[in-house]
């Protein structure tokens, strides 16, 4: 049975219990942060932050203000571009539908980072020779396999994050979106059930996806074309071929850019 | 809370005002969310700043800090007018039969509308504008038997309803919005929505409030304005209704019940005052205030002597006898009229009168008002004991950067305490539920549970008094402490210290108690089943009558109950076997107002109690008496001497009705009367009041989800520091534009008392207020930071004023004046 999470942003109060619970369960250290003139912190995902609440202040038509929130983490796409491009099989779809990874197989090539349409995976200490491994939300496989619900869903005080069978959550999310429409959220919709083969992390949104910085039509881009032959090269080829070096250089450049910011 | 957390789900309309439940009580939003989702409830947020609570609200209204009475006075006015034109939309039976709206008041009484902002009886002896009230006109007329006179048509010009109308006639929408800065249209929408959804009989609305309401010079009257609105709408005693204080810490309710504050003893009994020289003087003085000659009034406080004597027995055991007034004479007495509140104590330290201080889980160097002055006051102490989890700013005041330790003689002791997971005991939540918690792990190092610390400490104090004597030695040496708490053979089967104390709180028979036929009712040491069994003759003890039943001989320790089945026949979520709730496990108090005169619920679907013909079904009723139309009944508001809820409330020191006054520091002249401030407050430092020309910006303080109180717990936790790493200042885009402040840069905020710096969060969520054409800016600062711990920053309370509410003395943390400049200090 394919599992999923449904995140109803209309119920999210941005308390960030999920953000802390994620760190607590996954034993991720705190980052040294500064106040960036907003409540968001850390202001981006990182190898030590796999889930964060993003805040957006909005002006409403007619002059009112609004403040909307969304937990940002791996979407666990059914047709996951990161899995397609992963040359070593470190990233894979597990039987419950999660986009899982085996860190021991990861060679740090960074293709997953490049091809994720949601900008989720982050590399640990990536260097030119691709030694840092990828990190992201694991869907708390260690909990789910033992019959527990993911730490974020467990910690959520309002029921904004629910965990269950994907098909049930689609039905629930569709009904919630309909109800919100009736309550005046004209653009309310279920997001993700029909994207990239169906996302494992679906949202009930109170507004257009763009308001929450979500792509309306995410695709795997070139991953769909590259997949057959990248995977065909196999793990040994990576870092040894000119192509691999080129791509590694691209990735390293990306990381240097991130560090400069 | 009159109701409880889970009951919020039953509400038709929820007002969150003076609180920010989503951020400071996030778990409460489980029930708010449920009310919205399952019950179609409307959520209204009223706050100076658009908060995470506002983000979930259907209607948001901004109001300037310190103007709740103007806002709610305006709502009261709107409802009165609507009641007059559409009485069929309201629960008029509730209003006339259960509240004192129909009472006739002394014709000599004058509202603040008639006396330019003051009620009749104001006495200002020194002419400084501040004084006190002679309350002799604040009373109802009575018939020859002493029963209040009423006009249930509510037409008599001296009836409470008409006086209320007169009091708030000035609070028309334009006047209100000129004070509060709210948009007129939004204000009217809230009046209409709240009255429309919660006013009809059978509907309910709740008001969730917290420190944004209380921490004002008129904080008590802010709450009164909410309570009066709730009574007009019939919202007290019903499911989804009530007046609900969201307590700021998990056990504030418990600590208040057990007399954390200076003006009460456990169970809200009165502390003795110097003029009550004998026990009977005290009991007579207090019970005189609850005398009633109306046979239908229960006036529950007439039981006061039973609770008082049982408390004395609990403290002094066999040393307390009828002959020695049960030890009453040993108790220290308050001087009548003297103020022993937080600010007064710190002023006494500053003057050198108070020489030693125990700071128990408290960090006034960060959390106290005018924190810089409080840090200075600590320097005058001979000794300071800090009992805490961490070395707090209070404990380390002598090490503050810029302070020279060589100039300070205070001897500081640190007693490391166990945290909540490292000890066993009860905590009492806002809904009055006393819930047992078990120990998860041992405390580190030498840390001990508070109970163990105080037991050991007191044993040594007793020994010192026994060997050295001293004034008031009997108060200490006669206590049932030695050979009681330190006895390894615990008493009457108690397992350990915390178990013994919990039994004492409940109370037990001090001797065998017999039935009339001579059979044994209670054996000595048996736990009592109800406070109805407490005696004034010294045969019972209880260290808090409200908790009698919490640990009784029949059920054991009910605070340990964890059955989360809802046994209520209407399924309103009372969870009566989850923990235990005072009084007598009544989950919704004043619930006899939730039914009509025949005992039929106003809301038959979500009823709290209902009369079955010979008994009540549902929640534990407020007394088992039958409905109003049945012989032997009592009025529902049993804690009031006359049995009616107080729309007219003469008990307060500053008026029987609320009246809008400006905070001590205000940017405007009060447009509603010629009385600028609450005239009954104590101004401690008159030379520290800002001139609005120098300090034009309103400032308020608050908490964030990610930190806790004065920060010693959360500012030492890396995961929480990561979320909110720095002291910040929230500023509107408009004010930032005027001052040239950019987002995320340092700013300095200065009041007449001190200055701080923080990172600017320039936000759309603060907007300037338009007050009768004048633009007034407001900013906000969290008060969690200090100089100790993993993450440090300036303490917002260096800015806040030294003045408190006229009734409670709670400091005015929520509204004062500052100026802001770009750049750090």
Q: Could you walk me through the main structural features you see in this protein, from its secondary elements to its overall organization?
A:
The complex is a heterodimer of chains A (261) and B (825). Chain A is an alpha+beta fold. Chain A folds into two domains: 3-76 and 140-212, Alpha-Beta Plaits, CATH 3.30.70; 81-136 and 222-260, Alpha-Beta Plaits, CATH 3.30.70.20. In chain A, 31% of the residues lie in helices and 17% in strands. Chain A contains eight helices and ten strands. Chain B is an alpha/beta fold. Chain B is built from 20 helices and 29 strands. In chain B, the strands form ten sheets. A six-stranded mixed beta sheet of chain B has the order 23-25-24-29-22-28. A five-stranded parallel beta sheet of chain B has the order 3-2-1-6-7. In chain B, strands 8-9-10 form a three-stranded parallel beta sheet, with no helix packed on it. The longest helix of chain B has 19 residues, at 450-468. The chains are: A alpha+beta (261), B alpha/beta (825). At the A-B interface, helix 1, strand 2 and strand 3 of A face helix 2, helix 19 and strand 25 of B.
Q: Which features does this protein show?
A:
heterodimer; A: 261 residues; alpha+beta; Alpha-Beta Plaits; 2 domains; four-stranded mixed beta sheet; two-stranded antiparallel ribbon; 8 helices; 10 strands; globular; B: 825 residues; alpha/beta; Rossmann fold; Barwin-like endoglucanases; six-stranded mixed beta sheet; five-stranded parallel beta sheet; 20 helices; 29 strands
Task: List low-confidence stretches of chain A.
Answer: 235-241
List the domain count of chain A as a whole number. 2
Q: Which percent range fits the helix content of chain B?
A: 10-25%
The number of helices of chain A is 8
Tell me the major beta sheet of chain B.
6 strands, mixed
Instruction: Please report the first level of CATH classification, the CATH class of the largest domain in chain A.
Output: Alpha Beta
Q: In the CATH scheme, what's the topology name of the largest domain in chain A?
A: Alpha-Beta Plaits
């Amino acid at each position: 049975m394919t599992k999923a999470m449904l995140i109803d942003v209309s119920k999210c109060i941005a308390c960030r219990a999920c953000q802390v619970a994620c760190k607590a369960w996954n034993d991720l250290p705190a980052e040294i942060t500064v106040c960036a003139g907003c409540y968001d912190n850390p202001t981006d995902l990182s190898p030590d932050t796999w889930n964060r609440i993003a805040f957006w202040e909005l002006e409403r038509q007619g002059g009112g203000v609004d403040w909307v929130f969304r937990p940002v983490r791996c979407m666990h796409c059914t047709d996951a571009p990161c899995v397609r491009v992963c040359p070593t099989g470190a990233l894979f779809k597990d039987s419950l539908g999660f986009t899982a990874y085996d860190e021991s197989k990861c060679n740090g090539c960074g293709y997953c980072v490049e091809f994720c349409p949601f900008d989720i995976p982050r590399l640990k200490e990536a260097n030119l020779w691709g030694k840092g491994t990828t990190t992201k939300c694991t869907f708390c496989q260690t909990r789910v396999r033992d019959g527990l619900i993911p730490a974020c869903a467990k910690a959520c005080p309002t029921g904004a994050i629910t965990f269950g069978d994907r098909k049930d959550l689609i039905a629930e999310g569709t009904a919630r979106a309909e109800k919100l429409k009736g309550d005046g959220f004209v653009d309310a919709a279920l997001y993700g059930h029909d994207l990239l083969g169906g996302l494992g992390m679906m949202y009930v949104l109170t507004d257009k996806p763009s308001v929450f910085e979500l792509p309306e039509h995410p695709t795997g881009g070139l991953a769909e074309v590259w997949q057959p032959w990248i995977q065909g090269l196999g793990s040994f080829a990576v870092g040894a071929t000119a192509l691999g070096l080129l791509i590694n250089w691209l990735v390293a450049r990306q990381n240097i850019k991130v560090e400069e910011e | 809370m009159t109701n409880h957390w889970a009951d919020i789900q039953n509400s038709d309309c929820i007002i969150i005002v003076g609180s920010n439940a989503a951020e400071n009580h996030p778990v409460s939003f489980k029930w708010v969310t449920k009310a919205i989702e399952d019950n179609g409830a409307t959520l209204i947020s009223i706050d100076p700043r658009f908060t995470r609570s506002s983000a979930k609200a259907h209607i948001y209204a901004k109001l300037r800090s310190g103007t709740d009475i103007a806002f709610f006075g305006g709502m009261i006015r709107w409802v009165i007018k609507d009641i007059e034109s559409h009485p069929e939309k309201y629960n008029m039976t509730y209003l006339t039969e259960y509240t004192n709206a129909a009472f006739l008041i002394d014709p000599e009484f004058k509202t603040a509308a008639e006396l330019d902002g003051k009620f009749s009886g104001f006495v200002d002896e020194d002419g400084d504008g501040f004084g006190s009230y002679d309350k002799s006109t604040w009373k109802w007329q009575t018939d020859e038997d002493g029963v209040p006179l009423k006009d249930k048509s509510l037409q008599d010009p001296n009836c409470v309803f008409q006086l209320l109308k007169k009091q708030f006639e000035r609070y028309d929408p334009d006047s209100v919005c000129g004070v509060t800065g709210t948009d007129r249209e939004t204000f009217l929408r809230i009046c209409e929505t709240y009255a429309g959804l919660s006013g009809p009989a059978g509907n309910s609305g709740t008001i969730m409030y917290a420190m944004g309401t209380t921490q004002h010079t008129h904080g008590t009257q802010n709450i009164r304005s909410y309570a009066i609105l709730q009574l007009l709408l019939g919202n007290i005693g019903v499911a989804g209704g009530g007046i609900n204080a969201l307590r700021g810490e998990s056990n504030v309710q418990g600590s208040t019940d057990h007399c954390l504050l200076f003006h009460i003893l456990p169970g809200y009994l009165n502390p003795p005052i110097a003029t009550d020289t004998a026990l009977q003087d005290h009991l007579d003085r207090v019970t005189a205030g609850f005398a009633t000659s109306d046979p239908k009034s229960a006036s529950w406080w007439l039981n006061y002597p039973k609770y008082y004597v049982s408390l004395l027995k609990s403290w002094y055991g066999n040393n307390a006898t009828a002959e020695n007034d049960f030890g009453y004479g040993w108790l220290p007495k308050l001087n009548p009229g003297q103020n022993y509140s937080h600010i007064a104590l710190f002023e006494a330290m500053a003057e050198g009168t108070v020489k030693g201080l125990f700071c128990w889980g408290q960090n006034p160097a960060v959390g106290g008002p005018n924190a810089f002055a409080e840090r200075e006051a600590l320097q005058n102490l001979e000794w300071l004991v800090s009992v805490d989890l961490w070395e707090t700013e209070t404990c380390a005041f002598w090490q503050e950067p810029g302070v020279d330790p060589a100039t300070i003689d205070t001897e500081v002791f640190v007693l490391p305490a166990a945290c909540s997971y490292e000890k066993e005991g009860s905590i009492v939540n806002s809904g009055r539920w006393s819930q047992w918690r078990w120990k998860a792990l041992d405390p580190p190092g030498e840390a001990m549970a508070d109970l163990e610390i105080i037991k050991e400490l007191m044993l040594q104090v007793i020994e010192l008094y026994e060997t050295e004597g001293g004034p008031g030695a009997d108060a200490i040496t006669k206590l049932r402490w030695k050979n009681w708490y330190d006895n390894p053979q615990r008493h009457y089967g108690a397992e350990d210290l915390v178990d013994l104390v919990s039994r004492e709180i409940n109370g037990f028979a001090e001797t065998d108690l017999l039935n009339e036929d001579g059979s044994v009712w209670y054996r000595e040491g048996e736990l009592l089943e109800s406070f109805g069994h407490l005696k004034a003759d010294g045969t019972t003890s209880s260290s808090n009558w409200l908790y009698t039943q919490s640990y009784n001989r029949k059920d054991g320790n009910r605070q340990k109950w964890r059955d989360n089945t809802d046994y209520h026949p209407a399924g309103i979520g009372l969870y009566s076997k989850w923990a235990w709730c005072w009084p007598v496990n009544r989950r919704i108090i004043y619930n006899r107002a939730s039914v009509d005169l025949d005992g039929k619920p106003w809301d038959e679907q979500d009823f709290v109690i209902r009369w079955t013909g010979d008994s009540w079904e549902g929640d534990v009723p407020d007394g088992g008496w039958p409905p109003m139309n049945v012989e032997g009944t009592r009025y529902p508001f049993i804690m009031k001497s006359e049995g009616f809820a107080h729309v007219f409330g003469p008990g307060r020191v500053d008026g029987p009705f609320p009246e809008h006054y400006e905070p001590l520091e205000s940017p405007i002249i009060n447009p509603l009367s010629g009385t600028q401030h609450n005239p009954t407050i104590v101004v401690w430092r008159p030379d520290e009041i800002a001139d609005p020309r120098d300090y034009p910006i309103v400032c308020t303080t608050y908490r964030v989800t990610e930190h806790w109180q004065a920060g010693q717990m959360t500012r030492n936790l890396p995961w929480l520091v990561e979320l909110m790493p720095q002291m910040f200042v929230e500023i509107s885009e408009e004010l930032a534009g005027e001052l040239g402040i950019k987002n995320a840069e340092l700013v300095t905020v200065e009041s007449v008392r001190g200055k701080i710096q923080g990172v600017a969060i320039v936000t759309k969520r603060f907007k300037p207020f338009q007050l009768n054409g004048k633009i007034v800016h407001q900013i906000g600062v969290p008060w969690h930071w200090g100089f100790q711990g993993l993450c440090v920053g300036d303490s917002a309370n260096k800015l806040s004023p030294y003045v408190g509410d006229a009734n409670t003395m709670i400091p005015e943390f929520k509204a004062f004046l500052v100026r802001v400049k770009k750049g750090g200090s």
